[in-house]
Amino acid sequence: EPAYEDSPLNAFERLFGSGASNASPVTDDIGVRRERSVLDSNLEVLNQMRSELGSFEKARLDEHSDAIRRIEARLNKSTQPSSGECGSPAFNSGNFNGACDNAANFDVIADLQIDVVTLALKCDLTRVVSLMLGNHQGDYIVPEAGVDTNYHQSIHGRPAEDYIQYRTYFTTKLRYLIQSLADTQDMDGNNLIDNTILLHVSDMADARGHMGENVPYMLAGRGGGVLTTGRSLTLNSVDYKSILDTVAQAAGVDTNASDYPGYGNGPVS
Fold first, then answer.
1. How many whole angstroms separate alpha carbon 67 and alpha carbon 74?
2. What is the CA radius of gyration of the chain?
3. For residue 111, how far is the Cα from the chain centroid?
4. Please, are residues 18 and 27 in contact by the beta-carbon 8 Å criterion?
5. pLDDT by residue (tens digit) across 165-218?
6. What span, in angstroms and rounded, lies between the C-alpha atoms of 198 and 168?
């Protein structure tokens, strides 16, 4: 499982940059940095290493470098977008400075992370994304939510009115994500939201007692036509973990396979 990334600027660089930002000026066009070879980015270090090796070791290093070149050529040919919006995507038009340790930046960070998600799916750099708004403890304040209470405190009902305001604010971020996917065309001509299954969850229901009953879940997107949208369902006697089985099946996973772990009692019929 990839490590989470708090900084949307770092996440964007990992996806669209060379992976060696210290070896290339940030003023470089992102498409240029994406095309730069990992060997070229580290050429100075390789040359220094080569000068310290004997003839046998030099030959082995050259063989290894040539193998990497061949692999890069294959990857560039088969997977990397090289032009258009995916070659040099527009990002961070507001010139956010990247300060992720300041709660005052929560709103712009959330929007930029959503922009990264949309670009990654549009350019087919990934098929699965996890987006978490804030850390799992919820020990932060979001000025844009309009309350001064720590979110963790509001979760436990201190006070409940502040929790409602927080959840209302977070829903605006969910709306921004759905709208972003709806406004972005996928490679087949459909909108991204039509080809996506978006699962919105909470880590618990009544947090005053750390209870897991009646956790609200929401699905958006049609998953390429697998899901029927525009419905509100009340599923009696259905374990919430079965929702995960349902999403897995809708995404094309064989939930009857012997190696499928199974989260609940199987997909909802």
1. 11
2. 23
3. 12
4. no
5. 999 999 999 999 999 999 999 988 899 999 999 999 887 777 777 777 777 788
6. 18
